[in-house]
């Protein structure tokens, strides 16, 4: 599974700007998806930037409530993205004159 720019930055302890610059400079390979978001394969990313080792001191322990809240946030975000995609598809299926008139 590929990293987004933000996830790649977090996995390497760098900034999103650093990762994007590395892609643009050809240091690492990245691909854009249909929405224009960059993705980097983990092997390609860690070939240049080592992974950040997480220790118990670096990451706070999560309890079940924290994990559940994170899962709910991810589900909400996915639902929002799906609704946006559905709206986009509906808008594309309208006749040209309806898209202009609103």
What does this structure look like?
The protein is mainly alpha-helical and about 100 residues long. The protein has two domains: about 1-60, Multidrug-efflux Transporter Regulator, Chain: A, Domain 2; about 60-100. It is built from five helices and three strands; from the N terminus they run E-H-H-E-E-H-H-H. It has helices at about 5-10, 15-25, 40-50, 65-95, 95-100; strands at about 5, 30, 40. The chain has a three-stranded antiparallel sheet with strand order 1-3-2. Helix 1 crosses helix 2 (about 15-25). The model has no long low-confidence stretch (mean pLDDT about 85).
- Domains (count): 2
Quote the average pLDDT. Answer: 85
CATH third-level topology of the largest domain: Multidrug-efflux Transporter Regulator, Chain: A, Domain 2
Supply Rg: 19 Å
- Count of individual helical segments: 5
Largest sheet: 3 strands, antiparallel
Percent in strands: 5-15%
* Poorly predicted runs of 5 or more residues: none
**Which secondary-structure class do the elements indicate?**
mainly alpha
Shape: flat
CATH class (first level) name of the largest domain = Mainly Alpha
Please state how the strands of the largest beta sheet are arranged side by side.
1-3-2
SSE string = EHHEEHHH
Question: Helical amount among residues, as a percent range?
Answer: 55-70%
- Write the CATH architecture name of the largest domain: Orthogonal Bundle
Short overview:
With 102 residues, the chain is mostly helical. It has helices at 5-12, 16-24, 42-48, 64-93, 96-101, and strands spanning 3-4, 31-32, 38-40. It has a three-stranded antiparallel beta sheet with strand order 1-3-2.
